[in-house]
Design a protein that fits this description.
single chain, about 50 residues, mainly alpha, about 0% strand
Length: about 50
């Protein structure tokens, strides 16, 4: 996954790995908090339109 970030964003591998780790930790945090804990949902009361 880090190699994809490196290719798409021209970042060093170490920085890309850090980005992925941060995203994983954030996703795990909100998964443990349960429904309604998403910062997007908390701000707007609903999910964004697609």
């Amino acid at each position: 996954m880090a190699q994809l970030v490196v290719a798409e964003r021209d970042k060093p591998v170490v920085e890309a790995e850090g980005d992925i780790e941060k995203s994983a930790v954030t996703a795990e945090y909100y998964a443990r908090q349960g429904p309604g804990s998403s910062p997007t949902r908390a701000r707007t009361g609903s999910l964004p339109e697609r």
